[in-house]
Amino acid sequence: MADQWVENWEPANATKIMENILTAQNNKIDAVVASNDGTALGALQAMAAQGLAGKVPISGQDATAAGCKSIVEGGLTVTVFKDVRKLSPLAIQLAMDLVNGVKTGPVADLKMNNLSELTLNNKLTGQVPCDFLQVVQVDKNNVYDVVVKSGFQKYDDIYRDVPEEKRPPKI
Q1: Alpha carbon 13 to chain centroid, angstroms
Q2: DSSP secondary structure letter of residue 52
Q3: Residue 9 — very low, low, confident or very high, per pLDDT cuts 50/70/90?
């Protein structure tokens, strides 16, 4: 297992790290789990140079247009979709409710979580109330229904290089 931090989450840095991992492992890797679509795409670039693109599962996060486009083209395997458009309204509602002493609605949904578990740092103690957005695994079978139909990404950004006969109907 190779556990690497990608400085600034830069795809070019992810490419270099993946090249080093592939060299050290003689191209024998089982999967790549990246922290976001950009670093996943950087790792994919190194894998493609070794003929591993589309053969080794690779995941990203954030359901970016580039990540989703790569999924429909057979590069990335999956991305994790968290509808960040819901973050600001939820944060504002929680702040207002907490200030006003409201005990129902989003405030009632807060669950206490250990800081050590949230941060993967066993040195941290204490708890913090959290409300997590739903996450959805997005792959080639549901990218249209989950990401495009919701308006999170545009149809043309994801399918522009896919042959017309292999695209879902544009609605």
Answers
A1: 18
A2: -
A3: confident
The predicted-structure confidence for 70-103, as pLDDT tens digits, reads as follows 999 999 999 999 999 998 899 999 999 999 999 8
Tell me if 1 is assigned to some domain.
Answer: no
Considering its fold, how many domains does the chain have in total? 2
Distance CA(42)–CA(139), nearest Å, equals 18
**Confidence bin at 1 (pLDDT 50/70/90):** low
Angle at 154 between CA 170 and CA 162, to 5 degrees: 60
Domain encompassing residue 145:
7-83+134-166
The answer on 49 and 77 residing in a single domain is yes
Q: Beta-strand (E) ranges in 2-42?
A: 32-33
The single-letter DSSP state of residue 31 is -
CA distances from 95 to 10, 90, 103 (A): 33, 8, 12
Give per-residue pLDDT as tens, 22-63.
Answer: 999 999 999 999 999 999 999 999 999 999 999 999 999 999
